[in-house]
């Protein structure tokens, strides 16, 4: 998957909100890709509502990963603004696409409620040596397993997510957040020197 995750040269600095917007789009692309990969790996979705729910869980997990990375990259006030904006924008991506697929509804509120519940659970898991601990990967995978069920076809989805798919998603998002924040800092430094 090719993702554009660097700011081009600009004459003005990049705001926290602009960085959050760029990363929200990356998270959306990674969540879609992760959901498609499960289908390509012969796991079954019963319907579009289940597929949208899996995308939602991916987004929530990826926002949490971004928050953990930001803890070392941003000041506390900037980190809070960044994560709030990132969450709002991811909720917006999900809402627009869910309305297209599932019809009218308030998908944003449901997403935010689920995000708040998962954040409590995920925050109890370790994030060490620059990546999620096994308990965080398992907590995320358990949510996907619960959504997809334990029938003959889907009973191994938790193992697939924990061992392969979640780590691939984390690697992409960690790379993108470093690139986005790094290239925006370069823009700021360039603006300051001119």
Q: Helix fraction?
A: over 70%
Order of helices and strands: HHHHEEHH
Number of helices: 6
Major pleated sheet: 2 strands, antiparallel
Question: Would you tell me the overall average pLDDT?
Answer: 89
Gyration radius (Cα, Å) is: 17 Å
Label the structural class. mainly alpha
Strand content: under 5%
User: Whole-Å distance between the termini?
Assistant: 36 Å
Shape summary: globular
Strand order of the largest sheet: 1-2
The total beta strand count reads 2
Which regions have little confidence, pLDDT < 50, spanning 5+ residues? 186-194
Number of domain modules:
1
What does this protein look like?
This protein has 194 residues and is mainly alpha-helical. The chain has one domain. The chain is built from six helices and two strands. The chain has helices at 16-40, 48-73, 76-102, 107-122, 134-148, 157-193; strands at 127-128, 131-132. Strand 1 and strand 2 form a beta hairpin. The longest helix has 37 residues, at 157-193.
How would you summarize this macromolecular structure in one to three sentences?
This protein has 194 residues and is mainly α.
Key terms:
about 190 residues; mainly alpha; two-stranded antiparallel ribbon; 6 helices
Please outline the helices and strands:
Layout: H1 16-40, H2 48-73, H3 76-102, H4 107-122, E1 127-128, E2 131-132, H5 134-148, H6 157-193
Antiparallel strand pairs: 1-2
Helix pairs in contact: 1-2, 1-3, 1-6, 2-3, 2-4, 2-5, 2-6, 3-4, 5-6
């Amino acid at each position: 998957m090719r993702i554009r995750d660097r700011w081009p040269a600009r004459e003005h600095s990049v705001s926290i909100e602009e960085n959050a917007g760029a990363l929200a789009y990356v998270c959306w692309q990674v969540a879609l890709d992760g959901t498609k990969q499960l289908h390509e790996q012969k796991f079954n979705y019963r319907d579009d509502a289940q597929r949208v729910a899996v995308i939602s869980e991916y987004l929530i997990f990826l926002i949490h990963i971004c928050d953990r990375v930001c803890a070392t990259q941003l000041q506390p006030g900037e980190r809070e603004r960044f994560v709030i904006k990132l969450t709002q924008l991811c909720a917006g991506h999900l809402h627009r696409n869910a309305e297209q697929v599932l019809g009218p509804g308030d998908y944003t509120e449901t997403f935010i409620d689920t995000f708040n519940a998962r954040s409590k659970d995920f925050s109890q898991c370790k994030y060490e040596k620059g990546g999620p601990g096994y308990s965080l990967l398992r907590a995320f995978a358990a949510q996907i397993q619960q959504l997809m069920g334990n029938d003959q076809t889907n009973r191994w989805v938790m193992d697939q997510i924990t061992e392969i798919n979640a780590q691939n998603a984390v690697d992409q998002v960690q790379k993108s957040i470093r690139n986005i924040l790094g290239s925006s800092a370069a823009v700021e430094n360039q603006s300051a020197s001119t």
